[in-house]
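Need tokens for this chain, all 123 residues.
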Amino acid sequence: MQGFYTILLLVVSNIFMTCAWYGHLKMKQQFSWFEHLPLIGVVLFSWFLAFFEYCFQVPANRMGFRDNGGPFNLIQLKVIQEVITLVVFVGFSSIAFKGESFKWNHALAFLFLVAAVYLVFKK
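Here are the structure tokens for all 123 residues:
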């Protein structure tokens, strides 16, 4: 059950992270006030969102790490997090940036990351 909660927290964390890293690009297109915000304002906005990313990321890593009683070693945690990042990003970009296309080479790269998850769990 700890593994499930770890992954759930990582998903929520990555939603905030993706919004912090890329959400400002969409907001610039949708809100005129945001377009005129100086770069420092955009950075502060992203930091605000990143705070919530860390509120989920840190507990996920603590709970999931084997040395803290969790089911995953450090490398497994990192690879899981990378795959979650990619899945969340693909979903976010498909919804927020409809002009961006998901191509065959992107799908192949995703499959390689899934293969990486398989390999880090292989004994």
